[in-house]
Amino acid sequence: MTIEIDKNAEPHLFDGPIPGQSLTNSKENPYPWEQAPQITSHKEAMEIIFLELLKEENLETVSTLMIEGTPITDIAQMLLTLGFQAGKWNPDLMVTLIEPTIYMLLAIAEQIGIDPVLDRPEDRDAEQSDDETETMMDLETSKPSTKDEVFQQANINPAAVQGLDIEERLQQIDGKKIKQSILEKRNNNNQSSLLSRPEEN
What we know:
Elements: H1 42-53, H2 56-67, H3 72-85, H4 91-112, H5 130-141, H6 147-154, H7 166-171, H8 175-193
């Protein structure tokens, strides 16, 4: 049996890492996630995530993802994975941050006026454990209707985080402004991508 390899792929066949290569890296230059995590406190990690999410540039990015239908569970996983890769927390702490991050994203969606997608239906397979199924059903049926409920379910005190009130900052989000900015960028991208055929005389 002959295996055919695309000619365009041939120059890149050996570009990938060799199995076990990470174990031979210099101990003097470890990857961030190979070092001791920067944050070990669950409360401190949540506060940092919430404050980062509430930055204007991050709000617009996250809002765009939610408007485009990206599931909140995917967004939360992406944010936490980036933090792990940057060496901020270890995998054990990351798992405990998933639910609070989801609740924070729900609070942002509520403030901006977005009806978010919670998860992917195809991820709910028959092999999913009863505990996992119950957790997802709880999230679906008990979406917090107020920001107070968000913080209560996320088990965090919204007041005076590093001198900043998270709940107050949530209320200051200008949903109309964010939506307008997203719409303008979409229109600009659409106009720049359109190919117009020159008129024939």
